[in-house]
Design goal:
Structural class: alpha/beta
Distance between the termini: 43 Å
Oligomer: single chain
Number of strands: 9
Order of helices and strands: EHEHEHEHHEHEEEEHHHHH
Radius of gyration: 19 Å
Helix content: 25-40%
Largest sheet: 5 strands, mixed
Number of helices: 11
Shape: globular
Length: 309
């Protein structure tokens, strides 16, 4: 297939290991091993991704990227990439590694400022520890060009919390490089509505192919929601990225998706399970998902009524 580098987003899973087992995440029941990507595979991924004219968006898929021993070396290979972390291993030592690297953006998933709600979102997490570590990193990074995003999760459990609550908790007026962002929790593990996320009515990415995701074992999928690897396209251990994207398997999967034949697309079937054969909602969602990032977030907040009732 012909790549459009402006359209494609790339994720690299340095590790599928995590220190938490969150309720909104499929990692507790992940149907593949918990493992680190071997360093030669990281180097091959860099050659393949950049060789194809693509840029890495996130240094993770499943797993906590700060658990990866050579996280700073990986950032140097992919200086364009961002990191998302649960923040619970963001020690002063790791913070120093990150700040000495070319990392431009880090997202810390605080999610709730309520110590009783937080463990319902981040199972196994320590709220007090997170607040201390996040506050320490903000001080450590003060004046640094890195952009720090403090994530607020929008769910039924956090209806009463505001962006200002997060700003106040971390005294963000002191840190010009930090801001609060709001995100909904999307249904990676199940398409049924819960207190953490709502059900979906179509392809939540807006089209069949907007991602290249490379798992820790080198396998490649086309969707960041394919956490278990149900729709793997190929394997970087034995193939090049171009071979994978030009393969008959990928062409057949695209054709099946276009015909809404989900017989061999179980992950896609989950995203469409509530939509039936009427794709009006999906057509709207597709247009929203294909908007520029900032505009997309604004529109999604307007149409997102899942947590208002």
């Amino acid at each position: 297939m012909k790549l459009n580098p402006r359209r494609i987003k790339v994720g690299l899973e340095l590790t599928s290991k995590c220190n938490l087992r969150c309720g909104m995440c499929p990692l507790p029941v992940l149907r593949r091993p918990y493992e680190d990507m071997v360093w030669p595979m990281v180097e091959k991924a860099e050659r393949e991704i950049h060789g194809a004219g693509l840029k890495l968006k996130w240094l993770h898929e499943m797993g906590e990227p700060l658990l990866y021993a050579r996280i700073d070396d990986a950032i140097r290979l992919f200086p364009e990439a961002s990191l998302s972390t649960n923040g619970l291993v963001l020690t002063e030592e790791i913070g120093a590694k990150l700040l000495a690297s070319p990392l431009k953006r880090i997202r810390i998933c605080v999610d709730s400022v309520n110590p009783e709600v937080y463990p319902q979102l981040r199972t196994g997490g320590d709220f007090d520890k997170l607040v201390v570590l996040t506050g320490a990193f903000l001080k450590q990074a003060k004046g640094h060009p890195i952009r720090i995003e403090i994530q607020k999760m929008r769910s039924r459990l956090t209806l009463e919390e505001t962006v200002d609550d997060f700003r106040a908790l971390f005294d963000l007026k002191k840190y010009r490089n930090a801001r609060v962002i709001e995100k909904t929790c999307e249904a990676l593990d199940v398409n049924e509505e819960t207190d953490l996320h709502g059900k979906f009515y179509g392809c939540v990415q807006g089209a069949f192919f907007t991602w290249v995701v490379i798992f820790a074992d080198g396998r490649v999928t086309h969707c960041c929601y394919d956490a278990h690897g149900d729709q793997v396209l190929g394997d970087l251990k034995t193939q090049s990225l171009n071979e994978i994207l030009d393969s008959p398997r990928f062409a057949a999967m695209q054709d099946d998706f276009a015909r809404r034949d989900f017989t061999n697309l179980p992950r896609c079937a989950e995203c469409f399970k509530h939509g039936g054969e009427s794709h009006t909602f999906n057509d709207v969602l597709t247009r929203v998902q294909n908007l520029p990032g900032v505009a997309k977030d604004v529109v999604r907040k307007v149409i997102d009524v899942r947590y208002r009732t």
